[in-house]
TrEMBL record:
Domain Mechanosensitive ion channel MscS C-terminal: residue ranges: 176-258
A GO-annotated cellular component: plasma membrane
The keyword Transmembrane helix appears for this protein: yes
Entry annotated with the keyword Kinase: no
Entry's family note: Belongs to the MscS (TC 1.A.23) family.
Membrane-traversing stretches: 12-35, 55-81, 87-117
Keyword line: Cell membrane, Membrane, Transmembrane, Transmembrane helix
Protein name, per record: Mechanosensitive ion channel
Membrane topology classification: Multi-pass membrane protein
Annotated source species: Clostridium gasigenes
Pfam family, any one: MS_channel_2nd
Domain called Mechanosensitive ion channel MscS: residue spans: 104-169
């Protein structure tokens, strides 16, 4: 008699929940296949938009995990297993993790913004948060800079995304701005001619935009000339230091005095 009842219960379960279980497993299998295809399509779209590989990998994993968790919860509910407590547990865990990692989540959001907007890229020379250097890597939470003297700087992406970033190498050309002081006794027309010759003979200085040379200020002890010349971004430092050297040598040859601060003391 007990065997008969057990058989009846098994048959009843197989005809109701058992059928749902089979359908659920099939749906789960098909759902996982569809999610994988969606992720592949999503990755393809991001790659066409030239999104950073690091961000693509992270977003792929995040989207795949979320969709698969939601699918499993839906299948469990279809089979008849209560999922209310399970969903509440996930929500509570997510809230706890979010509160514990508040700063890290800010850096993560900043990393996503940087990788999408791209205010700078690897290899650019930038200044941010009072620091400057060449961008070595852009990661999800932090950006690494290398200074000119080969020091490594790690800046949180939350700070970078919410602060001012100066990108010195974003454009193909840059302007070199220099100021040269000469004595009041110097012939200013001769000084301007000498500076113009130096600029015109320099093979790294561009003709367009045209270089600009003019008196910038009548200082307390000197007449100050401003020199503005354009060059390719990669030639900036070469042109900058080269002009300083050539102007000093040329001024010496042309007997153009470069004044320096002096103090006259009269004793009674």
């Amino acid at each position: 008699m007990d065997i008969t009842k057990i058989s009846e219960q098994i048959i009843f379960w197989a005809s109701t929940n058992g059928l749902k279980l089979i359908i659920g497993l099939i749906s789960l299998f098909i759902g996982f296949k569809l999610i994988n295809k969606v992720i592949i399509g999503f990755r393809s779209i991001l790659e066409k938009q030239n999104v950073e590989a690091t961000l693509i990998t992270f977003l792929d994993g995040l989207c795949e995990s979320i969709m698969k968790i939601l699918l499993v919860i839906f299948i469990l509910g279809y089979i008849g297993i209560p999922t209310t407590g399970f969903a509440a547990l996930i929500a509570s865990a997510g809230l706890a993790v979010g509160l514990a990692l508040q700063g890290s989540l800010s850096n993560f959001a900043g990393g996503v913004i940087l990788l999408f907007i791209k205010p700078f890229k690897v290899g650019d020379y930038i200044e941010a948060n009072g620091r400057s250097g060449t961008v070595e890597s852009i990661k999800i939470f932090y950006t690494n800079l290398v200074t000119n003297d080969n020091k490594s700087i790690v800046i949180p992406n939350g700070t970078l995304s919410n602060g001012i970033v100066v990108n010195y190498t974003a454009k193909d050309t840059r302007r070199v701005d220099l100021v040269f002081a000469v004595a009041y006794t110097a012939d200013i027309l001769h000084v301007k001619k000498v500076l113009t010759e130096i600029v015109n003979k320099h093979n790294l200085i561009l003709n367009v935009p045209e270089p600009f040379i003019a008196i910038n200020e009548h200082g307390s002890s000197s007449v100050n000339f401003v020199l503005r010349a354009w060059c390719k971004t990669e030639d900036y430092l070469t042109v900058y230091f080269d002009l300083l050297e050539k102007v000093k040598i040329k001024f010496d040859n042309e007997e153009i005095d470069i004044p320096y601060p002096q103090m006259d003391i009269h004793m009674k």
